[in-house]
Structures are given as C-alpha cells and as structure tokens.
Amino acid sequence: MVGMSLLRTAAAFTARLNPLKRTCQSSNLLSRTVARSEQVVVRYGSHGKRMFIIKPTDFYDRRFLHLLKYYILLAGIPVAALVTFVNIFIGESELAEIPEGYEPEHWEYYKHPITRWIARTFYDSPVKDYEKMMALIQMEAEKAEMSQWDSHMPPGFHPKYLKLCSEDEQSFYRFGTTWGQLQLEVRRHMREKGDGPWFQIQTLDKNLIDHSPKSSPDN
Amino acid sequence: TTVFDIDNNKKYFIEHHINHDKDVYPEPPSRTPVEDRQSSLPNPALILSKLFYYSVDLPVTTFRDIVEGIQSGKKSHYYHQKFRRVPELTQCQEGDYVCYYEAEMQWRRDYKVDQEIVKVIQERLRACQQREGPSYSQNCYKELQQFEQVSKAFQSRYGDLGAYASARKCLMKQKERMMAEQQQA
C-alpha cells in the first residue's frame, strides 16, 4: 500500500517533469503548486453558446408523427368520451330470468347498451335472418328441382309446378303441353322473379329497335 | 397448538368479490397462524398490504360505488336466449334442405355449448390444482377424473373435424366410430 502511493507520487513527478509536456519552464517544478495562467473561465448570462448542430432532417418524421396523432385523436377522443359517458351514466344491463309469457325483443339479449342500440337500430333480429335464409334455401331447392325434372314424365302432372299456376293455367298445363313450352314458361317465371342481376333490370321491348339501314352511323 | 386466523384484508376481499359457487371452488383452510410478535420492527407484509389497500383497492371501490350511485334505478335487463329443439340431421328427409339447415344450426349451437362445458371443467381442475399445490394429483382426484372423461368424450365426438366442421361431418365421424366398434366386437 505504501509502495503504491510512493509509485503514484513518482509517476506524478515524472509526468510533471516530462519535457514534451512542460507548459512553462519556471522555478516551481519541484513544488506541487499549479501555475496560474491568465485564462479566465467564461461565465455566460445565457444558456451558453448557440451551436449550429448539423444532423439529418427530422422534418418528415415529426410531421408524420404529428399527423398520426392528430388523425387518431380526431375520432379517438370523441369515441372515448362517448363510451365513457355511456358506461358511467347508462351502464350495462343485468342478467335476469325470462319472465313467464314474455318474449324478449331481439336486442334484449345483449348486455352493453351500445350493442343493444346497434342491434335495435341497424340489425334485423336473428329470427328474421334465420327465416330469410330458410326462404332462400327453399327457393333454390325448388329451382334445382324444376331444372332436374325427368324428361320422360309428362310435365302437366308435376304437383309442385301446378301449385304455381292459376286455375285455368292448371287445366291448360295438365294436358297437351310439350317440354319445350314448359321450359319457356319456367324461363319466363325466372325472368319475372329474378334469377340474377341481368334479369332484374327492366329494358324496353326489343321489337322497338329499328334494324333498317340508316343514312349516317350515329342516327 | 397454534390458532389459525384470516388476515383482515383478505376477509374484505372475500366478502366483496365472490361471484362463483362456493361449493365448487372452496376456500382452502387458511394456514396462517395468529401473530405473536416479539420484535418491535414493522411487519413488511402488513405494510405492503396496507399500501395496496390504500393506493389501489380503496380508490377503485369508491369509484365503483360512485358510478353505481349514478346508475341506481332504471336498470335494464338482458336474457339468455332459449332455443327450441328441432329435428336432427338423422331425422330429416333426404332432399329437405330447410330441415338440413335447421339441424345444422342446432348442431352448431350444441358444439358451442360443449366447448363451454369443457372450458368450465378445465377451470375447475385449474382452480383445484392452484388450491392444493404439490399434492394435487391426490387431492383433486375427482376433478381429474371428470376432466379426463369430458375431454375424451369431446375428442371422440368433435375431435378432428377442423375449422369447417359441420353436422354432416360429425355424423360421418360417428358412423366411422360405430363401424370401428362393430369391427372390434
């Protein structure tokens, strides 16, 4: 330990005596005092010297972040406020047993008031959706069945098709129709009831088109 | 003999936050002995619990009470929908697509219900394991057996049907199962 401090003082001494690093060659070499120079430490009254710091532009990054925050908060703050007020002042519903003889409305199966409002205002009831789906399935099933009729059977005897016709049509179709006539009839029904987008747009009668040659192309 | 006692804060927690069945998720017997302090140094557990109580529990509870005070009265209710049973896929005529649709919808509802049943049984087993600690395989035997039975049944019925599962595929799986059983017997 003592050796270390001795070494340290020796090292400091030799550093001071280093001819390459000697600041002044005066008489205070062997003493431990530091030479006082005439340079004074500058004390600023402001925040220091203004520096012109050169760095790559952060304009685009900052603009992007600013716009991101702006557009997110533009809708975010109203929505957050709305949801907070709904949760505090209206509050969620409580679970209850269905009372006897009471059929709850379709929105009364949800808990949160906003979900209930959406179900009440915009959505059809699931029962209605179910029935709509079943109606579509039944119509498609009937069309599929109609297109697969056995060509050997006389058309008039098919009970499902007879139900679609009126009384006199029924008597017409019971006897003396061919499959071609029946197919045309089916196609007429499909056009009227709409089998695809091109059948649902009413157009003018094709017989009104004048096919005679004209004097100029854009007549 | 030592005397067992429940910590005051824990009692508060229990009284205010129970919404499950006490028989299914029983509280384990408390093993904390009554304190018999000899030193005058403060108890760090007590300090921390008091800190938690005053910084988190009390503000949250008072906020909740204020909000409930605002919302008192004019409470609306919501219900659980009850569905009627319709004929299953095996009871439908061939070509009756409407019957197929209704059977499919009913099968999907039943699938969801069975998934929730499995989740409840899993939750019970998890709670039991948490309660019993290292000796769960001995103390939770009933829950273990129940879970094993339920998950085996679920796997055999709905097991590898995949994301596009349907009533038809489930029926075909059942048919395969019955054929395998018959071949074994």
TrEMBL record, chain A:
Membrane topology value: Single-pass membrane protein
Localization in the cell: Mitochondrion inner membrane
Keywords, sorted A to Z: Electron transport, Membrane, Mitochondrion, Mitochondrion inner membrane, Respiratory chain, Transit peptide, Transmembrane, Transmembrane helix, Transport
TM regions (residue ranges): 70-90
Any GO CC annotation of this UniProt entry: mitochondrial inner membrane
Primary localization class, coarse: mitochondrion
A Pfam family matched in the record: NDUF_B5
Keyword Transmembrane helix listed: yes
Source taxon at top rank: Eukaryota
InterPro entries for the chain: NADH_UbQ_OxRdtase_B5_su (IPR019173)
Role: Accessory subunit of the mitochondrial membrane respiratory chain NADH dehydrogenase (Complex I), that is believed not to be involved in catalysis. Complex I functions in the transfer of electrons from NADH to the respiratory chain. The immediate electron acceptor for the enzyme is believed to be ubiquinone.
Protein family per UniProt: Belongs to the complex I NDUFB5 subunit family.
Subunit structure comment from the entry: Complex I is composed of 45 different subunits.
Protein's name according to its UniProt entry: NADH dehydrogenase [ubiquinone] 1 beta subcomplex subunit 5, mitochondrial
Originating species: Cyprinus carpio carpio
TrEMBL record, chain B:
Organism domain of life: Eukaryota
Keyword annotations from UniProtKB, A to Z: Electron transport, Membrane, Mitochondrion, Mitochondrion inner membrane, Respiratory chain, Transport
Annotated function: Accessory subunit that is involved in the functional assembly of the mitochondrial respiratory chain complex I. Complex I has an NADH dehydrogenase activity with ubiquinone as an immediate electron acceptor and mediates the transfer of electrons from NADH to the respiratory chain.
Membrane-crossing residue ranges in chain numbering: none
Signal peptide residues on this chain, from the entry's feature table: none
Source organism of this protein record: Cyprinus carpio carpio
Record lineage: Eukaryota, Metazoa, Chordata, Craniata, Vertebrata
Protein family membership: Belongs to the complex I NDUFB10 subunit family.
Keyword Membrane: yes
Membrane topology: Peripheral membrane protein
Location of the protein in the cell: Mitochondrion inner membrane
Chief location: mitochondrion
Protein name: NADH dehydrogenase [ubiquinone] 1 beta subcomplex subunit 10
InterPro entries found in the cross-reference section: NADH_UbQ_OxRdtase_su10, NDUFB10
GO cellular component terms, A-Z: mitochondrial inner membrane; respiratory chain complex I
